[in-house]
């Protein structure tokens, strides 16, 4: 039997509708419109879809959005000066520095991201927000993992007591995913490039999250029959061809539920970004 396809747009639309209603309340009751600033340094082609989808979503929800384009050769000091300016800007409730950064400042990534006011850190990458996630305090949660968890809940896929396996240990997906699944009482295992016997571990997963960045990494023999498979990968294998980390055609015959790429998790990421911008604006208003 073929798996249930978890269509990203169905879930993303619900998150965006909710963000739109809350933005409307902020405008009507407080005269405040949520605002997002996206800083792009240089031109990374992989980032362009994301920027396009973010702009479209902001427009649809009436959220103010500003794209700050800085040259490829921007120095750390120049980027930090821009962040400082946006930290003080009253119209801006969310700041996102598009990753990856160009080579000459890539090594300064942590210092740069840590400069963003945690209250405006809509990516949830600042150590203050990471700490809140780990301890279970309310904060801004990274968009991709947050979207995956909300989708699993809306899709009625049980997490409590279940085995969840995350492949990938990035700060952006793998690690926050671990904490979100743990908070839902799943038993969580993280696998990564040094994991021995990876397939034996993934075959135990009731929920399998693939965030590796390698096309077709997860094959059908690695999946437990009936498992929910969440594909976080976005791999461009040709100018117009996007694939995930999961061998979709084969795995959908084994899994119970699966997300497609495109049309899956990517759309949730954008929707959760809208939620985070609105949340940051709500907190700013109620301070
Ligand atoms: N600070 C920062 N935060 C990020 O969250 C971040 C980033 N930098 N840098 C780039 C990556 C990539 N990313 C995507 C989000 C949505 C889609 C997306 O909307 N994908 C759709 C459309 C695909 C298409 O139209 O080709 C889909 O998968 O269906 C793609 C890619 C966020 N990232």
UniProtKB/TrEMBL annotation:
Residues 6-123 form the Tetrahydrofolate dehydrogenase/cyclohydrolase catalytic domain. InterPro entries: Aminoacid_DH-like_N_sf (IPR046346), NAD(P)-bd_dom_sf (IPR036291), THF_DH/CycHdrlase (IPR000672), THF_DH/CycHdrlase_cat_dom (IPR020630), THF_DH/CycHdrlase_NAD-bd_dom (IPR020631). Keywords: Amino-acid biosynthesis, Histidine biosynthesis, Hydrolase, Methionine biosynthesis, Multifunctional enzyme, NADP, One-carbon metabolism, Oxidoreductase, Purine biosynthesis. Pathway: One-carbon metabolism; tetrahydrofolate interconversion. Residues 142-284 form the Tetrahydrofolate dehydrogenase/cyclohydrolase NAD(P)-binding domain. The keyword NADP applies. It catalyses: (6R)-5,10-methenyltetrahydrofolate + H2O = (6R)-10-formyltetrahydrofolate + H(+); (6R)-5,10-methylene-5,6,7,8-tetrahydrofolate + NADP(+) = (6R)-5,10-methenyltetrahydrofolate + NADPH. Its EC number is 1.5.1.5, 3.5.4.9. GO terms for biological process: L-histidine biosynthetic process; methionine biosynthetic process; purine nucleotide biosynthetic process; tetrahydrofolate interconversion. GO terms for molecular function: methenyltetrahydrofolate cyclohydrolase activity; methylenetetrahydrofolate dehydrogenase (NADP+) activity. NADP(+) binds at residues 168-170, 234. One of its GO terms (cellular component) is cytosol. The keyword Amino-acid biosynthesis applies. It comes from the Bacteria. Gene3D superfamilies: Leucine Dehydrogenase, chain A, domain 1 (3.40.50.10860), NAD(P)-binding Rossmann-like Domain (3.40.50.720). CDD domains: NAD_bind_m-THF_DH_Cyclohyd (cd01080). Catalyzes the oxidation of 5,10-methylenetetrahydrofolate to 5,10-methenyltetrahydrofolate and then the hydrolysis of 5,10-methenyltetrahydrofolate to 10-formyltetrahydrofolate. Belongs to the tetrahydrofolate dehydrogenase/cyclohydrolase family. Homodimer. This is Bifunctional protein FolD. It comes from Selenomonas ruminis.
